[in-house]
């Protein structure tokens, strides 16, 4: 298991920084918010349900001693994200870091998924990332900041039951590289992290319902990854130590995609046909 981030990175590494994080109310992005706050940053978290976000914000403030504000909205709505970032800028005075982490996913074959279901995942994962990045540009220009997206590895192989998410995340990767090229002139770095199977996440819980343990045992580095591993990668790639890294898709999966054939166990296919 990864060491505590505070035993690896300076505790004041992000002092004075402000981070805006979509999807920050739970899972990996909540972990990212907490990690940045533990190392000095103030944060704003954005998701659809204000009450849940406010509860999370108070929890994060309690465990880190840093300020966290909550803004509700939908990343699929460009006006929502623009309004939230404006409020964040007015509240904190600036935005240094933006994390595009809002995501939606479920398990389905292409045969079984509806056109609306496919579009919904594209809208949240890819269009939501574009909306967030577009809205963030004026503020990141001011601070010469960083944009970080959360991708995945489904599109590296033919991952069954994940065509919708694989297509969306492939788009996120392409967008990341293009923005890195276009926004380098503003001294803005743009990168992505592609987590593999991560314990404590809804995504892995869903996959585990329909597959045997052999899939996770094929991950070269054991035991399975945790949110803490993504926190470490985030703290590095957003830090001054990664000053010359931009347009990178950092895979954090213990080597999983190298051994992942993309063929689902029989139990997965049975589950998908139910």
Count of discrete structural domains: 1
Strand content: 5-15%
From N to C, what is the helix and strand string?
A: EHEHEHEHEHEHHHEHH
| Tally of strands | 7
Poorly predicted runs: none
Radius of gyration: 18 Å
What about the largest sheet?
A: 7 strands, parallel
- Helix fraction? 40-55%
> For the record, what CATH class applies?
Alpha Beta
Question: Which topology does CATH recognise?
Answer: Rossmann fold
The CATH H-level superfamily is NAD(P)-binding Rossmann-like Domain
CATH architecture: 3-Layer(aba) Sandwich
Structure, described:
The chain has 274 residues and is an alpha/beta fold. The longest helix is centred in the middle third of the chain and has 29 residues, at 115-143. Strand 1, helix 1 (27-38) and strand 2 form a beta-alpha-beta unit. It has helices at residues 27-38, 50-64, 78-92, 115-143, 163-183, 202-210, 214-217, 227-237, 256-259, 266-273, and strands spanning 18-22, 42-47, 68-72, 97-100, 146-150, 189-195, 249-252. The chain has one domain (11-273): Rossmann fold (3-Layer(aba) Sandwich), CATH 3.40.50. Helix 1 packs parallel to helix 2 (50-64), helix 1 crosses helix 8 (227-237) and helix 3 packs parallel to helix 4 (115-143). The mean pLDDT is 91. The protein is built from 10 helices and 7 strands. Strands 3-2-1-4-5-6-7 form a 7-stranded parallel sheet, sandwiched between helices.
């Amino acid at each position: 298991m990864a060491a505590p981030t505070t035993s690896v990175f300076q505790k004041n590494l992000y002092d004075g920084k402000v981070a805006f994080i979509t999807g920050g109310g739970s899972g990996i992005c909540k972990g990212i918010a907490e990690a940045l706050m533990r190392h000095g940053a103030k944060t704003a978290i954005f998701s659809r349900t204000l009450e849940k976000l406010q509860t999370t914000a108070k929890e994060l403030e309690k465990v880190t001693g840093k300020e966290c504000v909550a803004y509700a909205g939908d990343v699929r709505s460009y006006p929502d994200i623009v309004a939230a970032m404006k409020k964040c800028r007015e509240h904190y005075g600036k935005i240094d870091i933006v994390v595009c982490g809002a995501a939606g996913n479920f398990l389905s074959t292409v045969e079984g998924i509806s056109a609306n279901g496919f579009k919904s995942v594209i809208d949240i994962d890819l269009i939501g990332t574009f909306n967030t990045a577009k809205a963030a540009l004026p503020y990141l220009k001011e601070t010469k900041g960083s944009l970080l997206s959360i991708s995945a590895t489904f599109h590296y192989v033919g991952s069954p039951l994940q065509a919708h998410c694989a297509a969306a995340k492939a788009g996120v990767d392409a967008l990341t590289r293009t923005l890195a090229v276009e926004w380098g002139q503003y001294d803005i770095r743009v990168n992505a992290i592609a987590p593999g199977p991560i314990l404590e996440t809804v995504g892995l819980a869903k996959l585990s319902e329909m597959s045997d343990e052999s899939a996770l045992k094929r991950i070269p580095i054991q035991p399975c990854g945790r949110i803490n591993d993504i926190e470490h990668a985030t703290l590095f790639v957003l830090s001054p130590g990664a000053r010359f890294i931009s347009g990178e898709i950092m895979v954090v999966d213990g080597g999983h995609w190298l051994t992942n054939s993309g063929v689902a166990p029989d139990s997965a296919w049975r589950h998908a046909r139910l």
